[in-house]
Write a structure and sequence with these properties.
Blueprint: H1 22-30, E1 44-47, H2 58-69, E2 72-76, E3 95-100, E4 106-114, E5 120-126, H3 133-136, E6 139-145, H4 158-161, E7 165-169, H5 175-184, E8 189-193, E9 214-217, H6 219-226, E10 234-237, E11 243-244, E12 271-274, E13 278-281, E14 289-292, H7 295-312, H8 318-327, H9 342-345, H10 352-357, E15 360-364, E16 373-380, E17 384-394, E18 400-410, E19 415-419, E20 423-426, E21 431-440, E22 456-457, E23 460-461, E24 466-475, E25 480-491, E26 496-497, E27 510-515, E28 517-518, E29 527-536, H11 545-548, E30 552-559, E31 571-582, H12 587-590, E32 594-597, E33 606-612, H13 613-619, E34 632-637, E35 645-649, E36 665-673, E37 685-690, E38 700-703, E39 709-710, E40 721-723, E41 728-733, E42 750-754, E43 763-767, H14 782-788, H15 808-811, E44 822-825, E45 828-830
Parallel strand pairs: 1-2, 2-3, 3-12, 6-7, 7-8, 8-9, 16-25
Antiparallel strand pairs: 4-5, 4-10, 4-11, 5-9, 6-10, 13-14, 15-17, 17-21, 18-20, 18-24, 19-21, 22-23, 24-25, 26-28, 27-41, 29-30, 29-40, 29-42, 30-31, 31-36, 32-33, 32-37, 33-34, 34-35, 37-38, 39-41, 42-43, 43-44, 44-45
Helix pairs in contact: 1-2
């Protein structure tokens, strides 16, 4: 990219280790000879280090100061894939680079010889741990689809696979385990179908080999082969035909990390550059190259482009350089032509020629070093208006006139961005400011997937965050420039318990109780989940988000055993409310947990926490950041197990099934089957407690087979989740009170979690009091009315029977009546 640039290698760690020396390296880059004269600082610093899901640290100050001195800081975005907030980032001033593909990539191929309708060559890549085809020679055979398709368990159709080529889907377990199971079933070779768009990859493994060949093919080609499995599908492996991939140009590598920036929600990455299958210098290899890939290969392309820009324009500041690169970037699209969201590609793919020759740059007027127009996380409850400005700078000697336009990558009907004046005129070597208005109509905001993000990741159902983004354009005769805009969106409803009369009027058996809700929510399908309340903790008033996210407010439990006819097929649910929000529910970030004691001896038998399928299924280590993904589950562990296993999906439903706004929230649902916890007939009583590094609650009794409060909703999979825009019906089982630890005349309390509410209003605890029958539904028990009036229709709880300005219950001599529900929400209490 910049062949005559001087290179300095600053080693901060070996093949692995901490980035603790990176600040020292940036100090050296600022003053290489340590003489206090900073004019000899490095022009460009390329950083290929960081870790995913990380909040800004002391290193960001060093990167910011280096940029303020005049050095351009370029950083790799990371290789954690299409997972929200997984990106590496230190500071808004640096240029964070995603990994795109170019159109010159070539790969090996397989040949389909039958049936004739799909005969031809298809792109394929050999595994790194399998026997190579140049050793085995060509292999031709019938293709048999594995059962189970991902081959994460022994193959049920081993007889059919024997002597043939096994077709296996990528995902969930190691490539090594998949291919081994196919070999054990007698397969001669294996074809693995990619589970995401883009080219096939060279399959690796943490250790071990298998002595049959294996190749990966694309998701699209895999679908074509699967459609003809019943037509005598024959494939030949081992030919020498290379397949070019011109259609791969400007697609993103599946491994490129997604933003936005953790903690701040600012837009990252800034730009993309080729980083897939790159021939790079091989340390110790003389003149020989090495083939490598990742954002560590993409960032040097940008660093090289920066060197070229500074050679042509030595007076340009880091902000001008960054803006020139971003303003002239080319849009990236997936294999179906859908544009990638800005949290994956930033402004688009680097175009050095346009950047060097640009005469106009555009930046966010408030934070010009960021360039992009980033609105962060917006809680949407009411119509929202925000003013922002873009500053345009004319670097040329002629006046420039541009016309404002917006291209919506993630279009949202409820979000509009408009300019006060759509035309801007900039004098030669001058500046101009364009004022923009962001308008959000919460009733029209849509929470949906973007077209480039599949509903599964690594074989697990995905939870997504919701965003709106696109590009702001200024079109002129001599040039057109653009910069990305972005915002995260979250519903902010105000559902709550309706103030008034909530009573348990049936005093035996299972008594139905209606929990009337009030308030509104801009989201069209708001949800509330209901649990048998277990414990409440006061707020500690933490001012730091991550500390508040570890501060318990309430916990409860629920079971669907009565609705399913017993404990055999039952699921146990736990509802948790915290004082502040997590950003993503990875256990290594928020560290929440439920201890379960199944034999009532006061010792934990099972531990439940939350995390992602990638950690558990691949490594068994829930603290492994590099394997974390957007498939969030309850994680179950026991001291008797070698590694934890997956329980139910967090919040019961994935985003594709039902949107629960799991990310950027402070309430969530754990779930595990009774069988996973060793429970069954005759063994259903447990005790549980919340536990993390901040607090451990007392043990809370609960009978999984016979909960005192029945909250299962048959309309939503017998889960405790209900629609929040209608009254919620639960049941009090009077016969189960003692088994759940309740004393005589004591009733359970419902714990309500409002999943789409605004911060500070996401849980409520309701106190129920027995009242007896109320046939006329006026809030006064029938037996009480008969004692004091001539009939049931004389007075009601809201009437003023004797005209003394007090409602009837307070006017009558017998004293206060029972039957009033007390609502507790944080420290707020109201009774009537």
């Amino acid at each position: 990219m910049a062949p005559e640039a001087k290179l300095y290698a600053l080693k901060v760690f070996g093949c692995s280790g901490s980035t603790g020396l990176s600040v020292d390296a940036m100090e050296w880059a600022a003053d290489p000879d340590a003489d206090g004269d900073l004019s000899d600082r490095l022009d460009v610093v390329n950083l290929s280090l960081g870790r995913s899901y990380s909040r800004p640290s002391f290193e960001n100050n060093a990167a910011a100061r280096l940029a303020n001195l005049g050095s351009v800081v370029v950083r790799s975005a990371g290789n954690n894939g299409n997972n929200f907030y997984a990106l590496w980032s230190m500071d808004g001033r640096e240029i964070t680079v995603a990994n795109s593909m170019d159109d010159g990539i070539e790969n090996n191929s397989i040949e389909v010889t039958d049936p004739a309708v799909i005969r031809g060559f298809y792109e394929a890549v050999e595994g790194a741990f399998t026997k190579q085809l140049d050793v085995t020679g060509e292999i031709t055979g019938r293709v048999v689809y594995a059962d189970p398709p991902r081959a994460c368990d022994d193959l049920k159709n081993a007889a059919a696979v024997n002597g043939n080529i096994a077709l296996i889907d990528r995902g969930v377990c190691f490539f090594l385990d998949k291919v081994r199971r196919a070999k054990e079933a007698g397969a001669r070779a294996v074809l693995v179908v990619n589970n995401e768009g883009g080219p096939p990859i060279a399959m690796g493994t943490p250790g071990g080999t298998v002595d049959i060949p294996a190749m990966m093919i694309t998701l699209r080609d895999g679908a074509k082969l699967k459609a003809h499995l019943g037509d005598g599908l024959l494939v030949k492996l081992g030919g020498d035909v290379m397949i070019g991939g011109p259609e791969l140009g400007d697609q993103l590598s599946p491994g490129s990390s997604r933003g936005p920036e953790y903690e701040t929600h600012w837009l990252k990455p800034d730009i993309a550059a080729p980083g897939f299958n790159i021939h790079s210098a091989w340390a110790g290899g003389g003149a020989a190259p090495m083939l490598s890939g990742g954002t560590s290969m993409a960032a040097p392309h940008v660093a090289g482009a920066v060197a070229l820009l500074l050679e042509r324009h030595p007076a340009w500041t880091p902000t001008i350089v960054k803006a020139a690169l971003m303003n002239t970037a080319v849009q990236t699209r997936d294999e179906n032509g859908a544009p990638y969201p800005e949290t994956r590609t930033g402004a688009g793919r680097l175009n050095p020629r346009l950047a060097i020759n640009t005469l106009v740059i555009a930046t966010d007027a408030e934070s010009p070093w960021r360039v992009s127009l980033s609105f962060g996380l917006l809680e949407v409850g009411e119509p929202h208006l925000a003013k922002r400005s873009i500053e345009l700078t004319n670097l040329g000697a002629q006046p420039w006139i541009g016309t404002f336009a917006v291209s919506n990558t993630l279009a949202n009907a409820g979000v509009t961005l408009k300019a006060a004046n759509p035309t801007v005129a900039i004098p030669a070597n001058g500046k101009a400011t364009v004022e923009l208005t962001l308008a959000i109509d919460p009733a029209e905001v849509q929470l949906a997937f973007d077209a480039t993000t599949p509903p599964e990741v690594k074989g697990g159902p995905r939870h997504v965050a919701h965003e709106a983004s696109g590009q702001v354009w200024f079109h002129g005769e001599s040039a057109s420039v653009h910069l990305p805009f972005h915002m995260m969106l979250r519903p902010a409803g105000e559902h709550r318990m309706q103030a008034g009369r909530v009573a348990v009027r049936q005093l035996e058996g299972v008594a139905p109780v209606v929990l009337p809700l009030a308030g509104a929510n801009p989201y069209r399908a708001p949800l509330v989940s209901v649990f048998q309340f277990g414990y409440q903790s006061p707020s500690r008033g933490h001012g730091i988000r991550e500390q508040a996210a570890r501060d318990l407010r309430a916990v409860g439990a629920a079971s669907n055993a009565p609705e399913l006819g017993g404990i055999a097929d039952a699921t146990l649910f736990f509802g948790i409310a915290m004082d502040g929000p997590w950003i993503v529910p990875q256990s290594f970030l928020s560290n929440l947990g439920i201890d379960v004691d199944t034999d009532l001896d006061g010792v934990t038998d099972y531990e439940l926490t939350h995390g992602s399928s990638g950690d558990v299924l691949v490594s068994g280590d829930i603290t492994e950041r590099e394997l974390a993904d957007d498939a969030y589950f309850t994680i179950i562990d026991s001291h008797e197990w070698e590694k934890p296993k997956l329980g139910g999906i967090l919040n019961v439903f994935s985003s594709a099934e039902r949107e629960t706004s799991l990310l950027n929230n402070s309430v969530m649902i754990y779930s595990a089957t009774a069988a996973d916890l060793g429970l069954g007939k005759g063994k259903s009583r447990i005790q549980y407690r919340f536990s993390n590094i901040t607090e451990t609650t007392r043990w809370i009794p609960f009978d999984v087979a016979n909960p005192a409060l029945r909250t299962a909703n048959s309309a939503l999979g017998h889960s405790p989740v209900h629609a929040a825009d209608a009254p919620v019906v639960v049941g009090v089982d009077h016969d189960a009170l003692a088994g759940n630890g309740f004393e005589e005349n004591q009733l359970p309390r419902p714990l309500l979690l409002f999943h789409h509410n605004k911060a500070g209003a996401r849980f409520e605890i309701v106190r129920l009091v027995a009242t007896g029958a109320d046939a006329d539904d006026d809030g006064l028990p029938d037996d009480w009315e008969r004692r004091h009036f001539s009939g049931l229709d004389v007075a009601g709880a809201d009437s003023d029977f004797d005209g003394d300005s007090f409602r009837t219950p307070r006017s009558m001599p017998p004293g206060p009546i029972r039957g009033i529900a007390t609502r507790i929400c944080g420290s707020r209490r109201r009774s009537r």
